[in-house]
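Why do we care about 3D structure at all? Because function follows from shape, and shape follows, mostly, from sequence. That is the central idea of this module. The next example makes it concrete: a single protein chain, its amino acid sequence, and then its structure expressed as tokens.
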Amino acid sequence: MLDTRVAQSAIDHAIALGADFAEVFVERNQVNNIATLSSQVRDIASGIDFGVGVRVVYGTNVLYGYTNRTDQEELKRIVSELAAKDRRDPATTSQAFDFRLAPDVHGAERTLAQDAEVGDKVAYLVAADRAARTASNLISQTQGACLQRQQGVEIFNSEGLHIRDTRHYVRASLRAVASNGSEQATGSRNDGGLQGWEIVEALDPAECGAEAARQALVNLSAKPCPSGRMPVVIGNGFGGVIFHEACGHLLETTSVAKQASVFHDQLGEMIATPVVNAVDDGTLVREWGSINIDDEGMATERTQLIKDGKLVNFLADRVGAAQTGLPRTGSGRRQSYQYAPASRMRNTFIEPGDDSFDDMIASIDRGLFASHMGGGSVQPGTGEFNFAVVEGYYVEDGRVRHPVKAATLISTGPDVLRRISMVGRDFALAAGMCGSVSGAVPTTVGQATLKVDDILVGGNA
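And the structure:
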């Protein structure tokens, strides 16, 4: 995508100005978005964005700029402006590029570059809408979405790296609204992966629509949730969002290097109960948060974060590794060429255990089953969180009694880790987007159903 001589010239210029490290990141991003409202197409948007990011590093001081131009003079101009306050005599030399094409273990067949397949995607969303409406006449509306993205990246750096990779993303979702005349409630279903539109072969629009409708109808019949401290069983799949947000970010060198994480000095210590084993794995085939290489050109890997309750690793990008002395983990990620990379999660989850759902429920006298989690807010430095429960049930005397609404879970990540007593076998993953200092990137969360012995539940009963 970029002339090798132009990249070499920009990097040589940075090294001549005394930079310890220089990098050129090139991106071509093609997208197709389709949105439906009930059975009608609301919007179809397609486009291509192209740009070049330039990173210059002096020690651990990172300077970053970007442009949409690819000429040598423009990139050298950016380098000069970035290095204006830090320039010094050369401290190192740049190496000749050794080109590699990143090995692709995921594969994509029905790619966006070949055909956007708009008609087929619309047909899927309309079929999902039909299934939702068939489930009940109380379903008043649906909102469907299908995103397909093809991201090509090329990375050059002063250590001789020259590598290319292509990533294919697809995500399809449906949101259903149920109404009884006086109240409304919603439900949703979302699927996604690192692959082409062939993902549709594994998706069933009838199942998608029925599940979105089911959740909406459950919430429509829900009673107000009681509040107070109580045991909570958190469902599998997207239930892992709590670990991702309230704990995972605290294990990234983005916060560890600044000692803004409560875990920054606890490597090798017990930070959770022995039943907790947490992993961040970028190698899972065709999962939404997977990558072949990170956005610094390093091959991705499987990183064990917590083993039997003990903190055994952090997630480190190049600069984070230099700041902390930790090994790099192939976790340097960015939204686009407009951002410098930072340590970020990929597919982050708590590994399955041996406990059964029935035993978890039976162990509760009064509590909550948070079947499906939603979004929330997190205080990055402490892991304090407030998460909404989008589908929940009141538990009493060891039995699931009735659905509840307006429930929230309030605690801190470190506290929750110390109160997980049971982890189930029904492991599942769920796709999402994660925002941080380097923008929004595709990530996957996951876990089996698990029990937290004591947590503050907010409700309005």
